[in-house]
Amino acid sequence: MKNKIELFDSVKRDKVEFIPIDNEVKIYVCGPTVYDNAHLGHARSSISFDLLRRVLLANGYKVTFARNYTDIDDKIINKMAQTGETLSEITNKYIKSYESDMRALNILDPDIKPKATETINEIAQMVNELLIKNYAYRTSSGDVYFDTSRDSEYLSLSHRNQKNEERESRLTKNEEEKRNSSDFVLWKASQNGDLVSFDSSIGSGRPGWHIECSAMINKHLAHQDKAYSIDIHCGGADLLFPHHENEASQSRCATGIELAKYWLHNGFVKINNEKMSKSLGNSFFIKDILQKYSGEVIRFYLLSTHYRSDFNFSEDDLIVSKRRLDKLYRLKKRVKISSDTDIIFRDKLLSSLNDDLNISQTLAELDKFISEANDKLDKKIKDSNISNSIIFINDLLGIGGSDEVEYFKFGLSSDERIDIENLIANRIKAKQIKNFKLADEIRTELNSMNIAIMDSINGTEWERIE
Ligand SMILES: [Zn+2]
Questions:
Q1: How far does the centroid of ligand 1 lie from the alpha carbon of residue 28, in Å?
Q2: Do 148 and 185 form a contact (C-beta atoms < 8 A)?
């Protein structure tokens, strides 16, 4: 008997009970378009749905998790023209960089990582299916468009109003033959001078963005005999329209099956209360923040706001959040790992997350656990559950798994560490010969280097402070 889990479904616009289609939960997350380094928005989305995956696993579900790489896109082609690099040179470089960022953030590696370039046959098949069923049409240049007027369910996902769509959209020259302004391209036929073109059963050309995800889901993940192809489709709130609306519509029309039973969207990231954008110059790359803070600290900070709320990034808040995580590591320094798991604590942490990933309640339980554990240790009450609870926290939240001594030394080079160790050794010698003035001077010097020292029965320990 599984615990009840509730999730906020973007289509129903309400919290609904999660009931999987089958005994294996299939999740698809729209991954990055690999033409640049990953930014905080990517980190937020990955962490949100990594938490979802960990919660389902902790509840005893088998989960198959797919996250794609959009490795065919006009943004990549523009970059090819700018840099003279090939498509694969660009995409391989940024896939590598993305995966290194994800590892730093302690994101569980997806079970399936499909690429658009490896799904061309399936994309062409799906476009052909839509042409045959008259849901798609060709223009004189050979491009294939999806006819949104043929799908009576179009806009049922995003709840947008067709009239607004018509008013908002402007046609480019290539789009003048579109039947409806909301129609979108499924396949762009090759033109002279195209940098990227693939041969396929529907001619040479390249796919539009939306069809890539539908075809990848159908190839790697989809049930073929159920009411829905997959259980949960996830992505950032900015993808709800048009990307997810179009994915859902073309899949529905091509396969006759609804794409996903539940749709989850994470909120936007703002930087110091401004919308993050490249033009504002406040588009933070994950790898830049990683120079200064560990991936675990960034993860914990991004995790601490509920996934559906907008997230306002500020370095001051990050430091406050780090102090909260420090407490877990201070506790970890006090306990040794042993056996037994505290079932009650485990249930408390999990039950709040089972309520649409209610992270604030979970973190309140975590704070309470840390303070009670410290009380017990102060009073020398033996509790072998503490260390195992920390292991469970790491499984569930992806935090607390690092070495507790290393955690407090993050970002220091080996040369800096040697200098610190030498100063500490000199201070010990000074104390031995009762030169307390020199010992104090060395402590002051270490403090000015942002190093705190603690004398204990095990000798002198040190930590980096912000
Ligand atoms: Zn997608």
A1: 8
A2: no
